[in-house]
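Following up on my earlier thread - several people asked me to post the actual chain instead of describing it. Fair enough. Here it is, all 140 residues.
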Amino acid sequence: MAPDGGRVPIGPVERLRRRDEFRRCYRHGAKIAGRWIVLHRLAPSPGRERVRVGFTVSRRVGKAVVRNRVKRRLREAWRRWIKELPVSGDVVVAARPQAAEASYAELEAELGWLLRKVCRTGGNGGGAPSASKPSGPASP
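Reply from S.P.:
Thanks for posting it. Predicted structure:
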């Protein structure tokens, strides 16, 4: 268990950091869009078993304080969902401008819905979530 009560850090090995890594995921990966989040997933390259994630929140979302809040919420939602779902490859989680108005619970539920869809379809799905999408993982 992590020292801070179960929170799993996203280490440097598990993060996309360079521009070309993000660009490769955008250009060659599958895209699944929701109301607040767009998920880009690139299948794992041979020999790479772990999932790597990158988060992007553009200036269209808002000023720096708002963008950082959205990014923190997305990172925390990722930490909660990644323990439960077998996602592999490179994933870019991009916030849409409307994400600034979404609550943490809404972002977490949508990220979970998108990740489940990626796991189920291999990243080839699309469309928007329905109103009956399941809620996020059970809180401890």
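The chain has three helices and four strands. That should answer part of your original question.
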